[in-house]
Predict the structure.
Amino acid sequence: GSFHTLGMQEDINALKDGVRVLGAGASSTLIRYAYGFDEVVLIANMGAGSLESVGIERLASVLPGPAVYVESGAASLIDCDVSGGQGAGIEVAGAVSSLRLERVGVAGNTGHGIYAHDGATLVLASCRVEENASSGLIVGSSSAADVCGTTIRHNGRSGVALEGDARLDLRESA
């Protein structure tokens, strides 16, 4: 696969299929953006890829948008911090969308921390979802989440909320 190294980015970024993007650490390598409804990182129309060791921050904007948006894509975020999302920090939408989060911090979003809906699949392993203005994790109708070794706390509403026929497998988490 391909390998890319990032410095400071202040522009919208679409993760590319099969590419592994590796930063120098979530506090050192930052991806920031704020304009309209746009997300900071877009994961769309791809079968695999990863974004590792970066901070993803959506700066204040008049119009709401997530920091990370997944649609018709599959990818992983590893050792990242996600903040500043309006509506959700991370949104995973659609039946062919899946996102794996490993050691990811999702905090300080003005809406939900993570929102998976319309058949999306989500895996959280050893993550922190805390101090988001609304719920920490929402699993919407027809969607599924597998959560292991994850701390979900101090969110404005529910820690975890399920809608309709959502499926949740919650293990070794608090």
Notes: Residues 1-12 have pLDDT under 50 and may be disordered.
